[in-house]
Amino acid sequence: MKNFITTLQNIWKIKELRERIGWTLLMLFVFRVGSFVVLPGVVPAALDKAGAGGDANSLLGLVNMFTGGAFSNASIMALGIMPYITASIIVQLLGFAMPYFQRLQQKEGESGRKKLTQITRLLTVAITLVQGGGYLTYINSIPGAIDPSVPASVFWLSSTIILSAGTVFAMWLGEKITDNGIGNGASLLITIGIIASLPQALAAEIALQINAGGLFKLILEFALLFVIMMATVLIVQGVRRVPIQFAKHMVQRGASQMPQAGARDHIPIKVNAAGVMPIIFAQALMFLPATIAQFASSNGSAPTGFMKLLVDPFSWVSALIVFLLVVGFTYVYTALIVNPTQYAEYLKRQNAFIPGIKPGKPTADFIDTVTTRITLPGSIFLGLIAILPTFAKMFGINPSFARFFGGTSLLIGVAVILDTLQQIESHLLMRRYDGLVKSGKLQGRSRMQSIGSSM
Q1: Among the four given CATH numbers 3.30.1020.10, 1.10.3370.10, 2.40.50.140, 3.90.190.20, the one describing domain 1-196
Q2: 264: CB partners within 8 A, 6+ apart
Q3: To the nearest whole number, what is the mean pLDDT of the chain?
C-alpha cells in the first residue's frame, strides 16, 4: 500500500502526466453527462415502462451496456462511439484487401494517415445515419415513447441530426483523449460505458445471493471472477519469443580487425494477436438473427423455436455458434495482421536471422508455423472467454452481472486498462520514477516490443 501511495505521489509530481490524466477524466465526465440528455420529443417514462434497453437476457441489453445506459435512455449519445469503431474496423479491413488503402496505411506516411482519418470520419457519419434510422424505428415501435404533440417529420429529422451530432461529438472526445490525454480515447469511452453498468449489476447480484442465503457462493463468485481476470491478463500479455541473432560484424582494434559476435534479440509474437476483434465480429453476426426475428414478427410476438435460441445470448445454441465463430475469426484476423513474409524481409534488411533457420522463405515458413501453433490455444481461450457468461448464468448468477465473467466487456476492460497503465508506466520511467509494477514487467516496458511494432 505504501508503494502504491508513493507511485500516486510520483504521478502528481509530473506536470504533463497530471494534466493528461485530468484532461482524460474531464472528457470522460462530459461523455457520461451526455448519456443522460434525452432526445427532444421522447417520453422517458414510456421508455422505462417498456424497458427500452432490453433486459439482461437480450442482445439489446448488451448494446445498452456498451453505451453505459445511453441506449435505454434514448439520449443524444444513444449510439455512443460504436459507429466510429465500426468505421475504423471497415477501413482497417479495406487496408488488407484494397491496394489504395494499403498505400495509405504503409507508404504515404503522415499524409496517408490523415486521409484515412478523414475517410473514417465520413464513414462514421454514414453509418450513424443508417443506425440512427434503425434506432428511431425501434423507439417509434414503443407505445407512448414519442410525444404525440411533436410532428413525426420534425421528430425524425431533428433526432437523426442530433444522434449524428452526438456520435461525432463522442468521436471528437475520443480523439482529444488520444491526443492530449492518457490511453486510447475510443477504447476508454467504451470501457467507461461498460464500467458504468457494473455497480448496478453488482448490487443486484449481492442482493440476489444474500436473499437466497448464498454468502459463500457470492465469495466464490468474486474469487472465480478474479481468477478469470488474471487468466485474461496472461493471454492478452502472452507472447512467444522467437530468438533472432544479428550477423557478426568487424571491430577495429589497433592495426587489426577482430570479429565480434552479433547481438541476440527476439521477435515477440502474441498468443492473441487478434485481440478482441474476433468476439466483436462474432457478436455482430449474432445480431442478424435478432434483426430478422424483429422484422418477421409483424404482430409483435416473441420469436419461438430455434430462432428464440439464436437471439438468446445465454442459450447453448448461441454459445456454441459464438465459440466456433470466434475460433474461426481469430485465425482469419491473425492471418491478416501477422505477415510472416514481412517479418522475414525485415530480418534480412537488419542483417539478422533465426538460429538454425535459413533466411528468406524458410524464415517466413517458420514464423508462419509458430504463429499457427500458438493461435490454436489463443483462439480456444478466446472462444471460452466469449461464452463464459453462459456458464455463469447457468450457475445462477444474475444475467447483468454474468456478462462481466467474459465476452467483449471483460476483454475490452482488461486490454484498455493494461494499455493505459503502460502509458502511465512509460511517463514514470522516462523521469526515472519507479513504475506501477516493480515485480515483473508490463509488456509496454519491454525493450523488445519495438521489434514487433516496427513491422
Answers
A1: 1.10.3370.10
A2: 243, 244, 245, 246
A3: 78
Interval 75-113: pLDDT, tens = 888 888 888 888 887 887 787 777 787 777 666 667 878
Cross-strand bridge partners of residue 259: 250
- Residues 265 and 450: their CA atoms lie apart, in Å, by 11
pLDDT per position as a tens digit, 265-300: 788 888 888 777 787 777 767 766 665 655 555 444
Confidence (pTM):
0.75
Q: CATH number for the 208-250+258-455 domain, one of 2.60.40.10, 1.10.3370.10, 3.90.1150.10, 3.40.50.720?
A: 1.10.3370.10
Euclidean distance between CA atoms 300 and 212, whole angstroms: 35
Distance CA 169, CA 149 (A): 29
Q: Helices 407-430 and 361-394 sit at what angle, rounded to 10 degrees?
A: 120
